[in-house]
Design brief:
Radius of gyration: 15 Å
Strand content: 15-25%
Structural class: alpha/beta
Helix content: 25-40%
Strand order of the largest sheet: 2-1-3-4-5
Length: 151
């Protein structure tokens, strides 16, 4: 999770919401990414999505069985769905998101009874540090006139 936190710091430095993600498989880090939404103008450029693409290219398969993703904030509906579709085995996240989180925050896609894949979820890892960087980023953005950033 510390590597994901470092990615969140990189996102902050690029004026992106400080969300970072790392994927490991068999003890090897196969992807590291952070939000790139503002830089790319792409609403799908979330840390998790970027990491999934990197990991798939790294192993040469879209199926990421046996992989664990570490992410600094609970994945949104898009990212949660993509993690299920990619067959990730485990999701570890720091900060729960009661508004948009889809692994137990607002809803839990992983709990749908008829889906063909489920993963293990661990939450609250490195939570205080990740919560603080997210909170500080959005407080700073709210003070900047003319910019809109939603948590």
């Amino acid at each position: 999770m510390k590597l994901a936190y470092n990615q969140a710091i990189d996102a902050w430095r690029e004026d992106e919401a400080p969300i970072g993600a790392v994927i490991e498989n068999g003890g090897e880090v196969i992807a590291k990414a952070h939000n790139r939404i503002e830089a790319t103008g792409d609403p799908t450029a979330h840390a998790e999505m970027q990491a999934l693409t990197q990991a798939s290219h790294h192993i040469g398969d879209w199926r990421l069985n046996g992989s664990t993703i570490y992410v600094t904030k609970e994945p949104c509906p898009m990212c949660s769905g993509a993690l299920l579709m990619a067959r990730v085995s485990r999701v570890v996240y720091a900060v729960a998101d009661p508004k948009m989180g889809c692994l137990g925050g607002a809803v839990d896609l992983n709990a749908l009874p008829d889906i063909n894949h489920h993963f293990t979820i661990t939450s609250g890892v490195f939570e205080a540090e990740c919560r603080e960087i997210i909170k500080a980023f959005f407080e700073k953005k709210r003070k900047t006139k003319g910019q809109r950033f939603d948590e």
